[in-house]
Amino acid sequence: MQTIKFFKQSPVPVEFHKPVMVQALQLPPVEKRLEAILAAGCNTFLLNTSEIFLDMLTDSGTNAMSNQQFSAMMLADEAYAGSQSFVRLLASVREFFGKEHFLPVHQGRAAEHILAEAFVKKGDVVPMNFHFTTTRAHIERMDATVRELIVDEVFKTDSDEPFKGNMDIAKLEATIKEVGTEKIPFIRMEVTTNLTGGQPVSLANLRAVRKVADKHGLLLVIDACLIAENAWFIKQREPEFALFSLAEIIHEMAKLADIVYFSARKLGAARGGGIVTNDEKLVAKMKDLIPLFEGFFTYGGMSTREIEALAVGLKEFTDELVISHMPQSIAHVVNTLKASGVPVVTPAGALGVHLDAKKFLPQVKSNQYPAGALAVAIFITAGVRGMERGTISNDRDPVTHQEILADMELVRMALPRRLFSLSHLQFLIDRLQWLFANRELIGGLKFIEEPSVLRFFDGKLAPIGDWPNKLQAKFKKDFGESL
Ligand code: F0G
User: Fold this and answer.
1) Residue 393 C-alpha to ligand 1 middle, in angstroms?
2) Could you tell me if 304 and 358 lie in one domain?
3) Which of 261, 291, 318 is where one domain is finished?
4) What is the pLDDT of residues 193-234, one digit of tens each?
5) Ligand 1 center to residue 108 CA distance, Å?
6) Is there a domain that residue 248 lies in?
7) Cβ distance 255 to 206 under 8 Å?
8) Which residues are known catalytic residues?
9) Is 60 exposed, middle or buried (0-12, 13-18, 19+ CB in 10 A)?
10) Residue 81: HSE in the Cβ half-sphere, 13 Å Cα cutoff
11) pLDDT-derived band of residue 2, with 50, 70 and 90 as boundaries?
């Protein structure tokens, strides 16, 4: 990694890219922000980008693309079958993962759908370090369950443990003993773990999981959405790999898995996704599902332009100057906020800045959705769209319909790759510091329209009491104007 040293200024992350094409932004006044979030049912997914200043909802499909990717898109070879664009992508995928077979899909959850259909049956249990929303939904759709076996340290949001995405090997052994290998279709490792704050997995831990899988004859599947950033953390934090290139670390990780799948909305800064493996028998189990659900084997639901962009994007994702920008930007915001007492998830991970809403809003009970309420308050304060990653993101228990209270109530402000400038980060820090100073004004939320599956996407909520108005009034008083 190239780190720039500073003479008199405190060090900040320096961008190794420049915007060669720009999109104008606007910051609507606070009255409009309040109006917009209430009309959106206090759900940031239901806002329009015309109402938003900085869109930190997700890094999925929102990364800035390079001029190299755009130029490759012009070479797209439009064909239903046998497109040369796919030939180029296949070569790039093989080089990136070091695996031979590639089944293209239209996005990450489509890969999860194929894996669930091919391997998971009723009554099965899928051990994993941590679930992702779409992963769990696809496994539960098969009447199977997810078992989360992440290290306990992860629930301590204020920590300096370097690999809080690790699986607890003793818990894995105990689960296998309890459930029996015939009920375990595969073990799933998510690198990094999205819902716990983009926390990385160490190579030592992946090796240990592989050893257990071998001992019991189980498959190991890696969700590789953020494998490049995870590799960067391994290089930074696991001394054995300090001198390895990102490409080498990614190969080491992929080598340990029987199957690797990914969303190209994240990995490769494009769209689409895929499933890769070296095992022809595993390919045979999944292959027929590709033309059925996704499209022909040489596009899998992706447009040829996306395929070209991904072929180039994967090459760029082994470049440390490209990959380090996101985690370094996150670390800048996290460390600055932490120093001023704002409760953030540490150590800084990948994907975004994660606020600990339980600590930020101790007055809001879990069943009044502290993370959802904090996301609403951030939008009113800053016009920044974050995402609730707490109890609202858990659907109710499918059998008892009881609320499943999340272990952690996080608000994520995603920092898509190469997108935001340092001034955007400084603005975010400033507004979050103001909000923290005024946190006692914030109250809870209640559902007014609640879908039964993936309710966080389009469920509608309302504030309990008129706290959003009070927050707006305080904002105007302190800033003297409405921006
Ligand atoms: N797995 C992980 C770890 C993810 O983070 C995502 C998506 C998926 C699978 C599904 O991929 O969206 O292409 O279907 N995460 C996005 C997010 C939605 O906002 O974190 P997809």
Assistant:
1) 13
2) no
3) 318
4) 999 999 999 999 999 999 999 999 999 999 999 999 999 999
5) 6
6) yes
7) no
8) 80, 132-133, 223, 266, 389, 456
9) middle
10) 3
11) low
